[in-house]
Amino acid sequence: MCGIVGYTGKGQAFPVLIKGLQRLEYRGYDSAGVALMSDTLNLYKCKGKVSDLLSHIGSANTEGHYGIGHTRWATHGEPNDANSHPHQSMSGDLVLIHNGIIENYDSIKKELMQRGYVFKSETDTEVLVNLIEEIKKNENVSLAEAVRKSLNEVIGAYAIVVMSKSEPGTLVAARKSSPLVIGIGAEGDYYIASDATPIVEFTKNVVYLDDGEIAEIVPGKELRLFTAKKQNVTPYIQELELHLEQLEKSGYEHFMLKEIYEQPRSVHDSMRGRLNVAKGLVHLGGIADYEQKIINAQRIIIVACGTSWHAGLVGEYLIEDLARIPVEVEYASEFRYRNPIITENDVVIAISQSGETADTLAALELAKSKGATILGVCNVVGSSIARTTHGGSYTHAGPEIGVASTKAFTSQVTVLTLMALMLGSKKGTIERSRYQRLLYGLEAIPEKIERALKTDKLVEEISTKFKDSSNFLYLGRGYCFPVALEGALKLKEISYIHAEGYPAAEMKHGPIALIDADMPVVVIATKGPSYEKVVSNIQEVKARKGVIIAIVTEGDTQVTEMADYSIEIPETEEIFSPLVASIPLQLLSYHIAVMRGCNVDQPRNLAKSVTVE
Ligand code: AGP
Q1: Residues near 499 by Cβ (< 8 Å), separated by ≥ 6?
Q2: Looking at ligand 1, which residue's alpha carbon is closest to its atom 4?
Q3: Which of 218, 264, 273, 521 is the S-S candidate for 446 at Cβ 3.0 to 4.6 Å?
Q4: Binding pocket residue ranges, ligand 1, CB within 6 Å
Q5: Is 558 helix (H, G, I), strand (E, B) or coil?
Q6: With contact defined as beta carbons under 8 Å apart, do 71 and 50 qualify?
Q7: Distance (Å, rounded) from C-alpha 528 to C-alpha 525?
Q8: Hey, which of 256, 314, 357 would you mutate to test ligand 1's pocket, going by the most ligand atoms within 8 Å of its Cβ?
Q9: Which band of pLDDT confidence, cut at 50, 70 and 90, is reported for residue 533?
Q10: Residue spans of alpha helices (H) in 370-406
């Protein structure tokens, strides 16, 4: 997915655009560009990051009171100068930026070529800007009307902003399946972006565009919203809760490290207003109306991708263990295409930090079309998934900028823990004294995460021993099996070391063949019902000269004797172990990646939110 910014007003557009692009670089960073309008149109774009764009621009003219900017994550056409955005129409009158995919661009391109259009790039975006030009010219309509007519001809997902030399100051924006937020400035100026981070320092008053909506943005005038079918829409202005300092690194070297250290706070925030230990109450307002529906559900289907899928797997263990409701966890990308059986007795829960993951959104829409109740666990307020579902719970983890998900994972697990406790209490499937004990245990988790963070220095020392390893194996049982999967994903996505997570007992069914003195094996061996079995698995690894890095409960004497390296974390109820055991694994992947000189916050080939298939 890509990052989009725009500005129109009395101020200079360029500084707003560049700062906005820097804030959005986590969304896509294989090329970047800006277009600025004053009495002339100046367009600058190139392969590379925003810093490369600034070098490319140098001291060229960046004057202009309105403009658009873009950071790209390639979908059509490789990352190069020609394919970067903004794209200009053949006459030079229009420039457009786009996040998404125009699925029928090929047939439109052929038709435009027959009308004499020549294309400079391989992108679907350049087709769209010339389609708008063709309609604007032939039908002699306004830019906004030409955009509306064009979008009635395209199939696909888009968030676009387009401007025209013939309508100075006007920006026209539209969205379908890709997010767009409009900021309303105090001086009649407007800001537009893929999410709120580039806007928040200028204004807290925003309008989230809905699918199918088009905005005609003219400085000093009321925002005009309408649909592709020409229906007027009243803008719904919301006040942002984001604060600028949340976006800065606050002295940490990387956003990822900052976000790892934010977890005592973010997990606390995920519980805020939802857990009342004294009264023995758990309340998730966003799904309260669906509580009975969930309790009576034939099954719960959790759909997600990546780290969110791992959180969903913890959710399965929690809800089946505490509320005795059948749960299935599905990769959204598989679920949406395998012709699954879905009935109105199913409850489908989407888990997504960004709330924009295309596969997860599509899986939800499929479930909705089959009559299922659909709920969401998202972090980004107003995101597409949040707005598609019947209800849901925000994780309130705050903006997660690092591509590798950390605090979002523990916040997702926290919300799923609250959900399982709430459902179990309602159903009477949790014995009362155990229920009360679990509420106290959950309330204490932020402090235990704080203590787990104190292993940072030890983890960093251990990381020096393994930064050059080629492969890792992560093993866990029970609630710690999803933690093993998540730990392996963290390592591979930021250090580029191959790593696999496995149920510890599964090792005998294949992976044990991999064990030798060069294979570090991370084992989550915290106190719990399967502790002795994990001890046996460790012995099997040691017998084959494998190197053990063990995550153990404070005070452990048995595994610490066997392991080559041990990292002690506070004791918790087994069901809370994912919330604490994942902390040293996040730190391990972070330090190894830093030692390998990897770009921790923007790992190669990855984007923070995959809004394309
Ligand atoms: C996790 O570290 C990755 N960034 C990735 O797997 C991510 O969890 C996945 O793309 C799902 O994103 P979402 O939570 O925003 O839907």
Answers
A1: 471, 472, 473, 474, 487, 488, 489, 491, 492
A2: 404
A3: 264
A4: 305-308, 352-354, 357, 360, 403-405, 493, 609-610
A5: helix
A6: yes
A7: 8
A8: 357
A9: very high
A10: 384-388
The answer to whether residues 69 and 18 touch, using CB atoms and an 8 Å cutoff, is yes
Cβ partners under 8 Å of residue 4, min gap 6: 24, 68, 69, 70, 97, 98, 99, 159, 160, 161, 180, 192, 193, 194
In sequence order, which residues have a C-beta less than 8 Å from that of residue 206 and are 6 or more positions away? 181, 182, 183, 184, 196, 199, 237, 238, 239, 240
* CB-neighbour burial class of residue 59 (10 A; exposed 0-12, middle 13-18, buried 19+): exposed
The Cα–Cα gap between 157 and 279 comes to: 47
Contacts within 8 Å (CB) and 24+ apart, 321-324:
321/420, 321/575, 322/420, 322/421, 322/423, 322/424, 322/429, 322/430, 322/575, 323/295, 323/420, 323/423, 323/424, 323/427, 323/429, 323/430, 324/424, 324/427, 324/429
Closest CA to ligand 1's atom 9? 306
Give the C-alpha distances (Å, rounded to integers) separating 166 from 326, 425, 472, 583: 60, 63, 59, 55
Q: Quote the longest CA-to-CA distance of the chain.
A: 81
Q: What is the pLDDT of residues 410-441, one digit of tens each?
A: 999 999 999 999 999 999 999 999 999 999 99
By most ligand atoms within 8 Å of CB, the mutation choice from 308, 335, 359, 485 for ligand 1 is: 308
Contact 81, 47 (CB under 8 A): yes
Catalytic residues: 2, 608
Residue 446 token pair: 């932020």
pTM, full prediction = 0.76
Q: What is the Å distance from ligand 1's center to 502 Cα? A: 20
Please give the number of the atom of ligand 1 that sits closest to the Cα of 606. Answer: 4
525 neighbors 566 (Cβ within 8 angstroms) = no
Q: What is the token pair recorded at 501?
A: 């997570």
> For residue 487, how far is its CA from the centre of ligand 1 (angstroms)?
14
- Phi, psi (rounded to 5 degrees) for 220: 80, -5
- How far does the centroid of ligand 1 lie from the alpha carbon of residue 310, in Å? 10
Query: Both tokens of residue 596?
Result: 């390998």
Q: What 3-state class would DSSP assign to 159?
A: strand
Dist. CA 404 → ligand 1 center (Å): 7
Q: How high is the pLDDT of residue 609?
A: 79
Q: At residue 185, what is the residue type?
A: G
